[in-house]
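Friendly challenge for the regulars: who can give me the structure tokens for this chain first? No prize, just bragging rights.
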Amino acid sequence: MKPTLYILAAGMGSRYGGLKQLDGLGPSGETIMDYSVFDALRAGFGKIVFVIRHDFEQEFREKIISKYEGHVPVEVVFQELDALPEGYAPAEGRTKPWGTGHAMLMAKGVINEPFGVINADDYYGADSFKVLADFLRSVEGKKGEYCMVGFRIGNTLSENGGVSRGLCKVNEAGYLTDVTECHGIERRDGKIVQVAEGETVPFPEDAYVSMNMWGFTPDYFDYSEADFIAFLNAHGDELKSEFYIPTVVNNLINSGKVRLKVEQTDSRWFGVTFAADRDATVAQFRQLVDDGIYPTPLFK
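First reply, four minutes later:
Bragging rights claimed.
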């Protein structure tokens, strides 16, 4: 069975200033998602599942999903504020859903095979999808064998501001022992630094970081649901609390229930974290097409 790719596309794009998932950045109006789907198909993925919100479903189907017809099976699930386990309800005044960990649970029952997870608004590069697909094929029929595609920190920075990245700690066997969310990472005077609480400190140049590119077997959903219920019991009355994939991953690793291999790639990330990133991203896609890495349009 071919692995499935789960694309997290329900975010608001608040820093960018709009629905960047639908922004045409390639020479023929391709979105970043289009390049991810193209690379995933070349790597051997067999199905695409998107998580979106109901309020832009029609536009998403018209602009995105329609172009994949005849190329790959596609399903859509929805992340909404009130999509909660039985007996739970959002606190009065809360306006946004519960983060990436919550978005993952929308696919329970839809994905029943090893699957990869990515953000809709990040370009990951062809090699990263090959690495991910190879791992997922190797764990078919297994449980508790997960992976994360680790990117070199220097290959993931924006020229237009500090970024947040998950700093990975890896043991000698190549398995993740901890992932810590770090904010305000940028390059200054040729050095990678972290700006936090008014202080600028060096950031390890050789670090591998998480770009939210994961590989799981379907047992992940049951583990995640149990953690989400515990999260709601502790933080469900808060208006802005969020439940993240790394929270579940860390809990599972620390409890010894799963192993998570860090699969390394030298792919170079780029994307549109900030509105000012757009022009550079358009130029990078143009260059990849000129170099013969991608056709344009991607899907005919």
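The chain has one domain: 4-151+209-247+258-290. The longest strand covers residues 176-188. Your move, everyone else.
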